[in-house]
Amino acid sequence: MNKNIRDAAPNEWFGSRFDSMLTAEQTGGSMSITDTVCPPGFSPPRHIHHDADEIFVVLTGDMKFWLDGKTVTVGPGGAIFIPRGSEHSFRVVSDIPARHLTIFAPGNFEGFFAEMCKGNYQIPADMEKIIEIGTTYHVEFTGPPLAAED
Q: pTM of this prediction?
């Protein structure tokens, strides 16, 4: 039975909150949806998902996306598609947190978020461990987070 759930496990990491709405297990692996809230200025390291497409649906705040060297800002009600194999990152550029749905097809990357929350890994101090865990989820880290001027 598919139903919206909230993880019982820790769901905060590096100032952001990750709540699984649908997991790969619930969808037979076809997709996952994570309700994510990131604080102003948050940016993950640049990375590539080798096995999954990613969609961001922005609910609140403004997010500047960097995708294969090009930038676009997406606000509430907007969405962006990140094809698998594309180098990307984002930065929350609004004064308020950005809440967005992160959709992966196929699913499974929600497990990476869960491991990061559980381990409370820090960037850049724990990047070696983050990279190690990332390889099990087919993500390759390719560069630093986006700076304010990117």
A: 0.89
